[in-house]
């Protein structure tokens, strides 16, 4: 990577010299141990035997499994990837039962969050927004021709004492260009963290001499302060002043805008992923965490359409 981050090419779990998505999720001996504990190995084995692409295999499984099994599949995929990151970046060793347990907990938490009682507690708040959102769905939109769009988000963890940034650049076709994740070893106020995210992004793109950029943040406070002419001597204000200085020095045809959170989910996913990474990472190809987020969204969409009630038996057979 251009920032000096060493990315191992060997498998983090078995030391195989060839690590790709197919190996990580389906061919690694550790992954096989996990799948054998889930009751899904028969279906998985059939899917991977017909292709050399992990994404093709996953698409096949999502199209052919029942709602319950799709739920199981996506949670296990996520847990295996979490295990991979913990091994690479934190040098943490897990057992296959631990990986399966985490997948089970994810399913249980998701079901609990979607029980009638919990859903009813938030329905009143959502009702006012439902009609509008259906008529005008909030989603990411590509920039005008010849421009880039850069989405920015920050994530915070007081427990881990970390503040994380997620940055994603796409072009007028909506095609992925670059992304970056990084963390600061401290927990800061939300306004300060969001301002740091904007400053980090401006510094990164100015280093690469990229202009004609629409910078988007879901922090209205940050965007409003940046566009304001007022000076603020607080920590937040000093960061914003530095952002203005960077912007005026290196960007001649760019702008900073505020968007709704629903249109900033890619940067949000990257910021959450950064929490599990020890060093800054620059992505020159579409990050796996975004592919997994897309798969989980596909699962939720398909499972809702199937309207299958959750089984009361042991989730993993």
Concise account of the structure shown:
By secondary structure, the protein is an alpha/beta fold. The protein is built from 12 helices and 6 strands.
Topology:
Blueprint: H1 21-27, H2 29-36, H3 41-48, H4 54-64, H5 67-90, H6 96-113, H7 116-135, E1 148-157, E2 162-171, E3 176-184, H8 190-207, E4 213-217, H9 220-227, H10 235-250, E5 255-258, H11 265-274, E6 281-283, H12 288-306
Helical content stands at 40-55%
Approximate strand percentage: 5-15%
Mean residue pLDDT? 81
Overall tally of structural domains: 2
Unreliable sequence segments: 307-313
Number of helices: 12
- Described by the principal axes of the CA atoms, the overall outline is elongated
The helix-and-strand class reads: alpha/beta
Radius of gyration: 21 Å
Strand tally is 6
What does the largest sheet look like? 6 strands, mixed
Description:
- The protein has a 6-stranded mixed beta sheet.
- Strand 2 and strand 3 form a beta hairpin.
- Residues 307-313 have low confidence and may be disordered.
- Helix 3 crosses helix 4 (54-64), helix 5 crosses helix 6 and helix 5 runs antiparallel to helix 12 (288-306).
- The protein is elongated.
- It has helices at 21-27, 29-36, 41-48, 54-64, 67-90, 96-113, 116-135, 190-207, 220-227, 235-250, 265-274, 288-306, and strands at 148-157, 162-171, 176-184, 213-217, 255-258, 281-283.
- The chain is built from 12 helices and 6 strands.
- The chain has 2 domains: 1-137 and 287-317, no CATH class; 148-286, Ribonuclease H-like superfamily/Ribonuclease H (Nucleotidyltransferase, domain 5).
């Amino acid at each position: 990577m251009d920032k000096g981050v060493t990315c191992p090419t060997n498998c983090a779990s078995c030391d195989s010299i060839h690590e790709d998505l197919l190996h990580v999720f389906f061919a690694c001996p550790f992954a096989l141990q996990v799948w054998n504990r889930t009751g899904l190995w028969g279906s998985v084995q059939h899917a991977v035997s017909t292709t050399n692409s992990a994404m093709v295999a996953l698409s096949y499984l999502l199209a052919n499994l029942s709602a319950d099994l799709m739920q199981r599949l996506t949670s296990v995929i996520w847990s295996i990837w979490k295990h991979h990151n913990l091994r690479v970046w934190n040098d943490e060793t897990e057992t296959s039962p631990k990986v399966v347990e985490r997948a089970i907990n994810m399913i249980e938490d998701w079901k609990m969050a979607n029980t009638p009682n919990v859903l009813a507690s938030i329905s009143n708040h959502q009702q006012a927004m439902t009609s509008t959102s259906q008529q005008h769905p909030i989603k990411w939109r590509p920039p005008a021709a010849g421009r880039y769009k850069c989405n920015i988000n920050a994530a915070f963890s007081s427990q881990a004492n970390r503040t994380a940034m997620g940055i994603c650049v796409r072009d007028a076709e909506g095609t992925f260009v670059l992304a970056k994740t990084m963390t600061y070893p401290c927990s800061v106020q939300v306004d300060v963290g969001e301002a740091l995210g904007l400053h980090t992004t401006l510094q990164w793109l100015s280093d690469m001499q990229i202009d004609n950029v629409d910078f988007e943040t879901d922090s209205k406070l940050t965007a409003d302060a940046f566009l304001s002419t007022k000076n603020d001597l607080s920590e937040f204000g000093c960061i914003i002043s530095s952002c203005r200085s960077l912007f005026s020095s290196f960007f001649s045809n760019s702008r900073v805008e505020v968007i709704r959170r629903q249109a900033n989910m890619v940067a949000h996913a990257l910021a959450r992923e950064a929490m599990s990474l020890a060093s800054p990472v620059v992505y020159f190809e579409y990050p796996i965490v975004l592919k997994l987020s897309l798969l989980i969204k596909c699962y939720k969409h398909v499972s809702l359409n199937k309207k299958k009630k959750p089984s009361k038996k042991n989730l993993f057979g």
